[in-house]
Design a protein that fits this description.
The protein has 97 residues and is an alpha/beta fold. It has helices at 7-15, 24-33, 50-59, 68-81, and strands spanning 20-23, 41-44, 62-65, 86-89. Strands 1-2-3-4 form a four-stranded parallel β-sheet. The longest helix has 14 residues, at 68-81.
Length: 97
């Protein structure tokens, strides 16, 4: 979303069925207000504040989780909100090059 913050451009991208990655609550709100369908929004970022996770769960966007701690926090919050968490787990490779 950082590369396409102009709402009119974002709407054209939506018409072409292109989704977006967002980082943080501000970008998430911008994407939702621009009309990006929640199933085409992916929330990323190494640290996600509770209010950001709450809004993402309420909106039904995909959440990319970077750790088992984030998985547990998201799971607990989803239960609290009676929401379904749509998540992806980022796997980090530990292979030496």
């Amino acid at each position: 979303l950082k590369a396409n913050i102009v709402v009119a451009l974002r709407r054209i991208l939506d018409e072409e069925h292109l989704g977006c990655d967002v980082f943080g609550l501000g970008e998430l709100e911008l994407a939702l207000r621009a009309g990006v369908p929640p199933d085409r929004i992916s929330l990323n970022g190494a640290t996600k504040a509770r209010d950001t996770l709450t809004r993402a769960l309420q909106a039904g966007v995909r959440i990319t989780l970077d750790s088992l701690d984030e998985l547990e926090r998201t799971r607990a919050l989803a239960r609290e909100l009676h929401a379904t968490a749509r998540v992806r787990l980022r796997r980090k490779s530990h292979k030496a090059l």
